[in-house]
């Protein structure tokens, strides 16, 4: 049996960190229910200690969601961890996600702590959380820019204290796919108890490589959890996009050899809900969920797709929640696509000569007008009928 890739959705936590994407408790709850329908393995519902509103949102989601693990973020201190545990109390499956920065830059300039202090705080925070929860994730923030020797020490210690998932964030989107994959493989090789934890990737998109880096973390590094968001929402340039990760692993199962539990038919509904809730428009050429992701405009492509869809489609639009693929009529379209649209509109022309005339009028129109609607086609057919 193939290994399972755990899909950890952080739309409601890291996604919400997008400037302008703040969500109310009820909006978060609605999205969490859709994430559960999508069958993601883990929903990071928020950061319980950050505000009363987020505490309430985490609490409501933990009560409502039964089939996905519900997680709250917490800094590595007793108060944050206790707040997370309190918000998650009574949930069917819950996780506390603790983070503490480990890069020299963050420790010195942001935390103003020595590496020894960070090491101790990481260890003791996981020990504290272990008394409150069985499922604990630890993230060394800015992990990818951390000194590997120091990181190995910290991660070995938190696994010994009971962390069950180790997440290696590329917090500032600085990684390159091969290097990030090797970074994780190296940590797993060097840390003696590394096999006691599930390894996870968390990549930001500052250089547009979040998805590629995450996939390299899986393929080269051996990670078995990917942290991602719907539509790639997230701090600055965003996070790894869930829809791209899921469809890459499914479409290229020949390469990754992994199973994903997500119900892909719920991807487009999830994308729409997140876009409507946050007001963040999805770009038309966005992979999988963009309006043009399954639209064909070139005549040669349209002809190919009408003969056999897999000539120009590596996934089915219907499999990710679209009602169908799209043949967009325009100046590049060929006669075959035009004839197909006439059929769909229920227009039967008497002879091939009439089809040719209507097609010629369509081409003239398409040179003047970029969007050709069904009404335009009906009008030009009627115009032709009136002339004869
Ligand atoms: O990007 C990051 O480092 C994070 C951590 C809190 C996991 O979001
Ligand atoms: Zn992040």
Automatic annotation (TrEMBL):
Q: What's the catalysed reaction? A: 3-methyl-2-oxobutanoate + acetyl-CoA + H2O = (2S)-2-isopropylmalate + CoA + H(+)
What domain of life does the UniProt record list for this protein's source?
A: Bacteria
Molecular-function annotations in GO: 2-isopropylmalate synthase activity; acetyl-CoA C-acetyltransferase activity; manganese ion binding
UniProt keywords, alphabetically: Acyltransferase, Amino-acid biosynthesis, Branched-chain amino acid biosynthesis, Cytoplasm, Leucine biosynthesis, Manganese, Metal-binding, Transferase
Judged by the first EC level, this protein's enzyme class is: transferase
User: In what residue span(s) does the Pyruvate carboxyltransferase domain sit?
Assistant: 5-268
Pathway in which the depicted protein is active: Amino-acid biosynthesis; L-leucine biosynthesis; L-leucine from 3-methyl-2-oxobutanoate: step 1/4
Chain residues that bind Mn(2+): 14, 202, 204, 239
Q: Report any one BP term from Gene Ontology.
A: L-leucine biosynthetic process
Q: Name the job this protein performs.
A: Catalyzes the condensation of the acetyl group of acetyl-CoA with 3-methyl-2-oxobutanoate (2-ketoisovalerate) to form 3-carboxy-3-hydroxy-4-methylpentanoate (2-isopropylmalate).
Family per record: Belongs to the alpha-IPM synthase/homocitrate synthase family. LeuA type 1 subfamily.
Quaternary structure, from the entry? Homodimer.
What is the protein named? 2-isopropylmalate synthase
**Origin species:** Piscinibacter koreensis
The opening ranks of the lineage are: Bacteria, Pseudomonadati, Pseudomonadota, Betaproteobacteria, Burkholderiales
